[in-house]
Write a structure and sequence with these properties.
By secondary structure, this protein is α/β, with parallel strands linked by helices. 42% of the residues lie in helices and 17% in strands. The model has no long low-confidence stretch (mean pLDDT 89).
């Protein structure tokens, strides 16, 4: 196997990798293996164990000083990532969930993206989802990667919100100082903490979106829909409260960009509530965003959502969610 390239040019930004984990001893080896096998070596790898009760610590011992292992009392993913931010020393932090993994050239491309005349605050590599019934795609050779690269640059997160693209901590790279400036991730919610972070970074300059090729394999495991729906509902309520309280930067100039992105998230989550048989929560999201959706011209959703519940069309809409979102 070829040795990783050291990205050691004195002016080049360094990248720390922060991996929060909880009871994933059976998966974290694949995740770490993909980071260690990168064609460009990371500045450091920090694994924050959020109070695991399995043999995660034992698995991590095998990596020795190649990995900084930190264990904390269970406090949630936001707190775990913040712990990693505090310990990281790189110019940028690349976040990777412990059940996901990178292609061999992910970090090399990210290094080139941040090593720019005007470095971005945020980089979003393309994600590719898979589950136990499907296999992750085979990584193409680097020559093909170069030919297929599709990179889009935006002035800030607030200007990016019009894309309606996925913003997720499982595929997220952020300038460390910017993370420190805004206080890291929210720790009072278990979902949407990544979107909340993006909105709080809203006016920090530069967001680069890597649209192709896919660089992060995101694993979808069978999880309790009811439990994830609870977290999702709380996360949406947090975003709505923050926006109504004028807590996000950008003021009135970017108000409807932010609200367009938040309602986009809420529309999808309202369908998730229905699938989890949480009709009251679904209606709550619908009514909480009703006037914003009307103002934004989302008439298909405003009209269709009550019909979805009335005529039992939840499964049909879930298979083609774009019809209302």
């Amino acid at each position: 196997m070829a040795q990783p390239k050291s990205h050691s040019v004195s002016s080049a930004p360094t990248i720390s990798v922060v991996i929060p984990t909880y009871n994933r001893a059976h998966l974290i080896g694949e995740c770490l293996g993909s980071v260690i096998a990168q064609s460009v070596a990371p500045h450091e790898i920090i694994v924050v164990d959020d109070g695991s009760t399995d043999n995660t610590a034992e698995v991590l011992e095998e990596y020795g000083d190649r990995v900084t292992y930190v264990k904390q009392t269970n406090a949630g993913p936001g707190a775990a990532r913040n712990n990693g931010i505090e310990r990281a020393s790189g110019d940028y932090i690349a976040f990777l969930d412990s059940d996901d993994f990178w292609t061999p050239w992910t970090l090399e491309v990210i290094c080139e993206v941040v090593d720019a005349p005007v470095p971005p605050t945020i980089v979003l590599p393309k994600r590719e989802e898979f589950d136990d019934k499907s296999s992750p795609f085979s990584a193409p050779p680097e020559s093909e990667v170069r030919e297929s690269l599709d990179i889009r640059r935006h002035a800030s997160f607030n200007s990016f919100t019009s894309q309606k693209a996925v913003f997720s901590s499982s595929a997220l790279v952020v300038r460390r100082q910017s993370l420190v400036d805004v206080g890291g991730f929210a720790t009072n919610i278990m979902a949407a903490e990544d979107v909340d972070l993006g909105l709080r970074l809203g006016e920090h300059p530069g967001l680069t979106l890597i649209l192709a090729p896919a660089m992060v394999h995101v694993r979808r495991t069978p999880a309790s829909l009811t439990r994830s729906a609870t977290y999702a509902f709380d996360g949406m309520q947090h975003l709505l409260a923050q926006e109504r309280g004028n807590c996000y930067p950008g003021g009135r100039a970017s108000q409807w960009q932010r609200r367009s992105f938040i309602t986009f998230m809420c529309r999808g989550k309202s369908i998730q509530m229905l699938l989890a048989k949480r009709r009251a929560a679904a209606w709550r999201l619908y009514f909480d965003t009703f006037w914003w959706n009307l103002r934004l011209g989302k008439l298909a959703y405003v009209v269709a959502f009550p019909a979805i519940i009335t005529f039992g069309l939840v499964g049909l809409v879930a298979r083609n969610n774009d019809t209302v979102t």
